[in-house]
Design a protein that fits this description.
12% strand, globular, oxidoreductase, EC 1.5.1.38, FMN reductase (NADPH) activity, Oxygen-insensitive NADPH nitroreductase, Flavin_OxRdtase_Frp
Length: 246
């Protein structure tokens, strides 16, 4: 084990930050760390928008479910799947831009952005900062795109709020057993006994964390959340932004 692995394994989402902006040096290091991530075929198909204006943060918070930690934080970053640069290059080089609207190119941009964001997250935590991903910005992608003045061939994917954590935060949630995540050579059928044991572990975790106010297994949480249809406007938005073929 080493400090890097300790940082990764100690991760938890921070939802309460000091009202203190990150320094210019910290911002530079975080962005540089994000850019050092792997990128498919050197495409670098993402952009990062830093939101320091608290009025804009408040508008984003309203879209994301009124999460206070998107407003009071060191910095709020919005990660964008971005093929707009590539559109400009293809047009300049007189290459057909139709290929940019394929599912493969959209996936490349999404994966590039996710890899960059996780690099930033690990860098932030290694500096003693806390982070929390904000998927709620996709509650209204059209409004987010308007707020950020996004051009065609881009999509707002998620936010990442980074700041100085207030003491006595949560500890890492127990992850699924490796037996349910890691498969050797071929996909293995889920062992329901292992799942049941994990469900009980999560029940105990929530019970202790909330002093009995929440007692819920992982399976119950998934059934309640993943079982719901939501954000059904995403397909139409992707088509509008030329990130998906009609």
């Amino acid at each position: 084990m080493n400090k890097t692995i300790d940082t990764i394994l100690g991760h938890y989402s921070v939802r309460k930050f000091a009202d203190k902006a990150l320094t210019e040096e910290e911002l530079a290091v975080l962005i540089k760390s994000a850019q050092a991530a792997s990128t498919s075929s050197f495409v670098q198909a993402y952009s990062i928008i830093g939101i320091s204006d608290k009025q804009i943060r408040e508008k984003i918070s309203a879209i994301a479910g009124n999460q206070a930690y998107t407003v009071q934080t060191g910095q709020l970053f919005i990660f964008i799947a971005d093929l707009a640069r590539h559109q400009a290059i293809l047009e300049r080089e007189e290459v057909d831009i139709e290929a940019l609207s394929t599912s493969e190119k959209s996936l490349v941009a999404i994966i590039d952005a996710a890899l960059a964001a996780q690099n930033m997250a690990i860098a932030a935590e290694s500096l003693g900062l806390g982070i929390c991903y904000i998927g709620g910005i996709r509650n209204d992608v059209k409004k987010m795109a308007e707020l950020l003045d996004l051009p065609p061939y881009t999509m707002p994917l998620f936010g990442l709020t980074v700041g100085y954590p207030v003491a006595n935060q949560e500890k890492a949630k127990p992850r699924l057993p490796q037996e349910l995540i890691y498969h050797q050579n071929t996909y293995q059928k889920m062992d329901l006994a292992i799942l049941a044991s994990y469900d009980e572990k999560i029940k105990q975790y929530y019970n202790k964390r909330t002093s009995g106010k929440r007692v819920e297994s992982w399976s119950e949480q998934m059934a309640r959340g993943i079982g719901q249809k939501n954000r059904l406007d995403l397909k139409a938005f992707l088509e509008k932004q030329h990130l998906s073929q009609k």
